[in-house]
Amino acid sequence: MKASRFLITTFITLLLASCVPVTPAPQTAQAMGTNTVTYRTEDIKRVNMSHADLQYLPLFASREEDQALISTVAQALTKLIGKAKPYTNTMDAEQHFFATDFTITFNDDTSLSLTFASQDTVVIQDGEQEYYAQNADVVKELNKLLKMPEQTRISTLQPRIGETIRLTGSDAHSEQGPIQLYVIPDGILSGYTSVKGESFPSKRALRIYVGTISQARYDVSFPLPAYGEAVDGSLQPITPGKWELTYVTNGLTSSRQIEIQAPLKPLLSINGVPVTDPAIQPVLRDGRMLLPLRSLASALGWHVSYLGHSKQVSISTSSNGSAAMTAPQQKKVSLWIDGEPLFTPEAEPIVLNGVTYLPLRAIADAFHFDITWSKEIGSVHLQYQPSLLPLDGYAKDSTEYAIAAIVNEYAVALNKRDGQKLKTLFKQKDYFFPAFEDIGYRQITAVRDIRFQSRYEGKAYVAYVTFNYLFNRNGDNSSSPGIALILENNKWLIADID
């Protein structure tokens, strides 16, 4: 029943969205000067206020704290419309620029503009028509709503790689969306389009984080990475020294100079993200960096088993669970990967305080990781691809094969934050889920399992997929969402994700 309800909801959303009723805004033009319309708080979706090039803190119907203030706007608008007359004068450009403006957006996305021509006169613009009303008390009440937003606050201007940095503010102006964070070595803002079709503030900018804007406000915390994403999609090192921390909100770009500090101890980064989990911290021994094998394997979604009598550590990187292994009893700990032994001196596990470690170079060679050592910050960067569904296991059913392939493509594109690719996998135009700002640094480490349920005579499917995660903000290391897919023009597309 769960799958049926999920799909029914999806189809209703896709097929009947255009039928959802929206309460129309009151007919302003017909009501001018007639006292026949009363504006209600619930009629208004958003109020934007400005003066010259100053943008005041907007009001949103979705924000409970703004309800009383929006009620004040609704009452003021009712009074002004009741006294409105056609406006025959013309405000010159300078007068209009330095006047206070209110833009009131209604639930049906129509809007009215109020411009304060004087201390008692308001010019009302409804489309191409202009009216005016005089009410000094209303102007005074509306002026009380003008609040300057809080500019961006940064927890430190000398952040250390691997340590948390926090940015807060209320100057984003939009109701929701991303706050994009970059570091730029020369501070020159020129604008550039990346290979993924995204706008970067500079060709040399490195994107370090994407956070969430909610009702013009943001509060983002993240460990400062040792690597950032360049315009060509590659990860490039962030070295100690002076950088411009640049943040983009709703098309507005601001910068502050910061001086980045090197980490106090060796740092491990995975796919550009600093590992802050104490269980995965590297240790140095005899000039070699060692990583805790079980914790690392668990973080990457691998299966680990240990046979005490034969001192064998087995790791399975596939989605099929642990692989069989057979070896005689021995004195030293041995490592087996996907059923194959690694009998080399470099791959010999080391047990420290009851924890099994493996040299970093041996991990790179055994699992085909790309590893980069940064001498400037004494840290190492590990790049990997997620473990995906083995498509040959679904070759007997063309539909299941196609859906498994889409799930694999989805996992890879989401890890790369490739919005262009993700949009090609979804039915709804210019849409994908989840939004990058909602997942922080989260990476899919493995696609572990998939179950298929056919619906509507095979024209729709629900695929229940198990993902393993690393760097998940809510702490969960796995989830099993339902992915609804629809067949359209002989191509399977993602309709929704539960």
UniProtKB/TrEMBL annotation:
It comes from the Bacteria. InterPro entries: Cu_amine_oxidase-like_N, Mao_N_sf. Residues 1-31 form the signal peptide. Residues 270-381 form the Copper amine oxidase-like N-terminal domain. Keywords: Signal. SUPFAM superfamilies: Copper amine oxidase, domain N (SSF55383). The keyword rRNA processing does not apply. This is Copper amine oxidase-like N-terminal domain-containing protein. It comes from Paenibacillus selenitireducens.
